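Recall that a protein's primary structure is simply its ordered list of amino acids. Everything else, from secondary elements to tertiary packing, is in principle encoded there. The following example makes that idea concrete.
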Amino acid sequence: MADEVLKIGMVGVGGFGRHRRRTMRGTGLFKMLAAYDLNPEALANAQAEDGAAPVASYEDLLAFPGI
């Protein structure tokens, strides 16, 4: 089980969230499936850098398949 990847969704992916994403990506232990942020540019970056699907609300993030 130690080699399993945790599938996550993240709220707040710009600013410090971008640093957090980079750190998590570097561990190889996480796969970001979806992201939510009020800033469209931050969402676009999360999609390009992490493959995270942008969602329109916190509720959509919680309901995202696989998380």
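The mean pLDDT is 95. The longest strand covers residues 30-36.
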